[in-house]
Amino acid sequence: xxxxxxxxxxxxxxxxxxxxxxxxxxxxxxxxxxxxxxxxxxxxxxxxxxxxxxxxxxxxxxxxxxxxxxxxxxxxxxxxxxxxxxxxxxxxxxxxxxxxxxxxxxxxxxxxxxxxxxxxxxxxxxxxxxxxxxxxxxxxxxxxxxxxxxxxxxxxxxxxxxxxxxxxxxxxxxxxxxxxxxxxxxxxxxxxxxxxxxxxxxxxxxxxxxxxxxxxxxxxxxxxxxxxxxxxxxxxxxxxxxxxxxxxxxxxxxxxxxxxxxxx
Length: 264
Known about the structure:
The protein is globular, with a radius of gyration of 19 Å. By secondary structure, it is of the alpha/beta class. The protein has helices at residues 18-26, 42-52, 60-63, 66-78, 91-105, 114-125, 135-144, 147-159, 161-177, 180-194, 196-219, 241-247, 257-263, and strands at 2-5, 29-34, 129-133, 226-231. The longest helix has 24 residues, at 196-219.
């Protein structure tokens, strides 16, 4: 089973649809982007801090235009912070912090994310759970994004935080309703158009690294059923895991009770 996740959810997103519960019950093992135990280990925290730090002896002020810095300073001040505290951070790390702050204010929480929820369920019933990559792999990909694209993402958020909040609500609504077309158009296609290097590093390259691992499980004769849970972005479009599996000769069918009912 391939399940496209939303990493931040709200209490009202539970209970999960029956299809997800059936896939979980039918699976002997789960696979996530990162092995569950790595999410909170001290080594992972240290790796995150290492990659979030700006490199090359630069400071944030040296890579971010003044107009964007002024908006960032205003945003920090409104929250009781100060811009100098961010001088040692990469633009992507600053942007991630702002986005997480906004989404949590909207009621979205990482501890309610689909990944975390299923990790906890697997641990509770004793189902083994592994990862497709390491924390280092994830943050290395983020850190490899060119500063120009990192800065562009930060500037876009600061230019119109309300627009970012609307986009979050839309993406969440489309994910809940299974609207693959809108998710692909507004999330994957927009990312590929606006930030092609980010798209290649964070989506395409990681999908390509994961694909052989999925094929090993599909071709295994005694592995049993596996539920693979990755961000919804990774299942979309021609670069997504679904189409990549199609291209390798596998038959991929959507499991959707509401879709079936609508076609009856």
